[in-house]
Amino acid sequence: MGGRDRPLWSALVPAVLAAGLLIGGLAAAGSLDSSLLPRVIADGPFALFVPLADQFDTGGPVPSPLPTPDLQPATSRWQPPLRTPWQWQLTGKPDLSVDAQVYDLDLFDTDAALVDALHAAGRRAICYVSLGSFEDWRPDADTFPAAVKGRALDGWPGERWLDIRNTSALQPIIAARLDLCKSKGFDAVEPDNIDGYTNRTGFPLTAEHQLAYNRLIAREAHARGLAVALKNDLDQVGSLVNDFDFAINEQCFQYDECDLLLPFIQAGKPVFQVEYGLPLSAFCSQANALNFNAIRKNLDLDAYRESCR
């Protein structure tokens, strides 16, 4: 029988035994850490023989498998500075000539190319989307079951409050909308109408329901690397400031309730604030003293904007 006809194992077994004796001797002499023996053998030229040991019962305890390392990159998100000039425009063609570092634009009406243009100019983009109300003109309106639609919002045709207790129905819709926000390149989300418990919604909503729903939104946004705003909901600021990255408020100076937003400032998180009916002279000095990013807008949120600083 020629050498090339010899079974492979007859040639390798002596070598494996010799290697085992050598490694065992080194370990006994203290030249090799015995805890490394499996790694040495597995990484060496005889690694193909190591899995065979798994086929035999050694009578000892079965070691637990090593934990699988988390190969997903850490999710980071934008945190706006305390002092950040902003523009909020939900109607008309966005006016990119406004001197603002951040643009708050409608999720469905804004395409990815516009977000890219803002980023190319060194700006940030927030997607506006109502997550507390149903709007019958939105492209995903048919995904809302009838059971979650409540009373109409006063003054807003085609819009109805949602039953935020029904998270099994609403969470997939929230997720899909935030996925769209992320896919278009937005840096953050402004979820609107997340204070339904203070309104006549047609449902017996409580403060606890609202806290749970708002935290669900924050978790879903953060899971996608999106910063998230607490929109209005002033009575719950103290409970939610740690869950949200900044605040957006309407008319706190008109209604004398701006002090409720101070936990955000104290936490180093900005407040983006807007007034509609007041002239700048009626609120800007106070807004600047509070370190709010305050602007004056038309109620339809077109391109018009006056800023306090």
Brief write-up:
The chain has helices at about 10-30, 35-45, 110-120, 165-185, 205-225, 235-240, 260-265, 285-290; strands at about 85-90, 100-105, 125-130, 135, 150, 160, 190, 225-230, 245-250, 270-275, 295, 305. With about 300 residues, the protein is α/β, with parallel strands linked by helices. Helix 4 packs parallel to helix 5 (about 205-225).
Strand content: 15-25%
Number of helices: 8
Residue ranges: pLDDT <50 for 5 or more in a row?
1-74
Q: What is the CATH C level class of the largest domain, in words?
A: Alpha Beta
Number of separate strands: 12
- Spatial order of strands in the largest sheet: 1-2-3-7-8-9-10-11-12
Number of domains: 2
> What is the mean pLDDT?
84
Element order: H for helix, E for strand: HHEEHEEEEHEHEHEHEHEE
Quickly give the structural class. Answer: alpha/beta
Global shape: globular
Produce the secondary structure layout.
Layout: H1 8-28, H2 37-43, E1 86-89, E2 102-106, H3 112-120, E3 124-130, E4 133-135, E5 149-152, E6 159-162, H4 167-183, E7 188-192, H5 207-223, E8 227-231, H6 237-240, E9 246-250, H7 262-266, E10 271-275, H8 284-290, E11 293-296, E12 306-307
Parallel strand pairs: 1-2, 2-3, 3-7, 7-8, 8-9, 9-10, 10-11
Antiparallel strand pairs: 4-6, 5-6, 11-12
Helix pairs in contact: 4-5
